[in-house]
Amino acid sequence: MTPPAPRRGPPDRGEIEGFLEGVTHRLRGLPEPPRRDLEADLGRAREAFALGALVETERILLDLEVRADAIEGEPELSEWPRGLVGYVPKGERGHATSDEEDPLSNRLRLIGRLAAVRRSQGRDVSRAEALLGEADAALRAGDRRSARRRVDEAHALLEVEPRSPSEE
């Protein structure tokens, strides 16, 4: 969760009431064991709200949001939506995708297969394979931009059809 912008002035009662209801709703969706731990603090937030302590209520609710984020994990982000019919993802929803499901990692493997096809056709694929090796190393090091650039370069090399001797 991105921290909220610093508040200017006292909190608005209606805004804090909506925040309280939103956090209450969010906690209902959490699994039972961790939810019980958070509900005690939610009770403290309700008491503070009833007493008119809006700043304290907001502080408790912000803390609950951070703790709920930790329980739920990061939202899954991908370049392309999972639009396959009957697709069942592997791993926990909301957590990082595995190497097997990562779009860039899959693209690296597919371009590697294309290199194997081109090699079987008698083409020299040494430069493309070197780029794919560099891309793999960059991906493992966490440098996705560099990995993507190298995969794109390798793909471009493999997609170009060789010229026949009659075209030269």
What integer is the average pLDDT? 83
Q: What is the CA–CA distance across the termini?
A: 59 Å
Pairing-aware structural class of the strands and helices? Answer: mainly alpha
Q: Please tally the helical runs, counting DSSP H or I stretches of 4 or more residues.
A: 6
What percentage of residues falls in helices of 4 or more residues?
A: 55-70%
Profile the largest sheet: none
Beta-strand portion reads under 5%
**Low-pLDDT residue intervals, each spanning 5 or more residues:** none
Choose one word for the global shape: elongated
H and E order: HHHHHH
Radius of gyration computed on alpha carbons: 26 Å
Number of strands: 0
Number of domains: 2
Give keywords.
2 domains, elongated, mainly alpha, 168 residues, 61% helix, 6 helices
Structure notes:
This protein is an all-alpha fold. It folds into two domains: 60 residues, no CATH class; 59 residues, no CATH class. Helix content is 61%, strand content 0%.
Helix-strand blueprint:
Blueprint: H1 13-28, H2 32-50, H3 54-72, H4 103-120, H5 126-140, H6 144-159
In short:
The protein is mainly α and 168 residues long. 61% of the residues lie in helices and 0% in strands. It has six helices and no strands.
